[in-house]
Write a structure and sequence with these properties.
The protein is built from four helices and no strands. Helix 2 runs antiparallel to helix 3 and helix 2 packs across helix 4. The longest helix has 23 residues. The model has no long low-confidence stretch (mean pLDDT 88).
Amino acid sequence: MGVTEQQLLDLGQYETSGAFDETERAAIELAVAMAKTPTDIPSELTARLREHFDEAQLVELAATIAWEHYRARFNRVFGVRSSGFSEGAFCAMPERHAAT
C-alpha cells in the first residue's frame, strides 16, 4: 500500500509510465479533470472509473479529491504555507506543458 518513489517521479507521465496500473491512471485522470476550470468529467472517464470502482468507492474518491482542492484553495486565501514538517522529503515537481 502507498505510493512508491517511482510513482512520485513518474507522476507527470502517469499516462505512459509503467509505475501505474489502469486503476491508478483512472483515479489520477479524475483528479486532473476535477482540477480544471471549468470542471468537465467526460462520460468515457466515468465509464472507465466504474470498471475499477463501485459506487461507494467512487463517491469516496471524488470527495477526497474535492476536499484536497478545497483545502488548497482555502489555504491560499490566508497565505498558509508549509510548516517545514517534511523538510528534505521527496517532492516531485510537475512538468510544465506548452499551452495548446
